[in-house]
């Protein structure tokens, strides 16, 4: 079974990136999520002082993940900037995994 995780980070909230990291790590280290494909939206990129997607990667510990498929996408949800690009990456990744035989079907669940 394949799990997908879309995680949205408030890139403007530098003070709580540590808390976001703890929550993110707890989710992705759950035994049911160990093989999940991860898409992180670094939101509020239009705001002055927002962390860059690279800073969010560092803050969440994405660079430390090994044997995981992940992508970070800078977004501005109010304008829709970056949302389609992130979802397009996800669709392309799933198509590639299906074509290579790594997955045979997908299911979705809401949390």
How many β-strands, per DSSP?
3
* Rg, alpha carbons: 14 Å
Overall pLDDT: 91
Largest sheet report = 3 strands, parallel
- Judged by helices, strands and strand pairing, the structural class is alpha/beta
What order do the strands of the largest sheet run in, or round the barrel if closed? 1-2-3
**What overall form do the CA principal axes indicate?**
globular
By CATH reckoning, the class would read Alpha Beta
In what range is the share of β-strand residues? 15-25%
Q: Write the CATH architecture name.
A: 3-Layer(aba) Sandwich
Notes on the structure:
With 111 residues, the protein is α/β, with parallel strands linked by helices. The protein has a single domain (4-99), classed as 3-Layer(aba) Sandwich (Rossmann fold), CATH 3.40.50.300. It has three helices and three strands, in the order E-H-E-H-E-H. The chain has helices at 17-28, 53-60, 83-99, and strands at 4-10, 37-43, 70-74. Strands 1-2-3 form a three-stranded parallel β-sheet, sandwiched between helices. The chain is globular. The two termini are 17 Å apart.
Short description:
The chain has 111 residues and is an alpha/beta fold.
From the structure above, extract its key features:
111 residues; alpha/beta; Rossmann fold; 3 strands
């Amino acid at each position: 079974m394949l799990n997908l995780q879309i995680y949205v980070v408030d890139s403007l909230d530098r003070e709580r990136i540590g808390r976001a990291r703890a929550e993110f790590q707890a989710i992705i280290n759950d035994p049911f999520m160990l093989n999940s494909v991860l898409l992180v939206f670094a939101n509020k990129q239009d705001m002055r002082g927002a962390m860059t997607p690279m800073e969010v990667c560092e803050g969440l510990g994405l660079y430390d993940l090994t044997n995981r498929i992940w992508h970070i996408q800078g977004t501005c949800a109010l304008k829709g900037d970056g949302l389609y690009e992130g979802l397009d990456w996800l669709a392309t990744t799933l198509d590639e995994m299906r074509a290579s035989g790594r997955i045979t079907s997908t299911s979705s669940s809401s949390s």
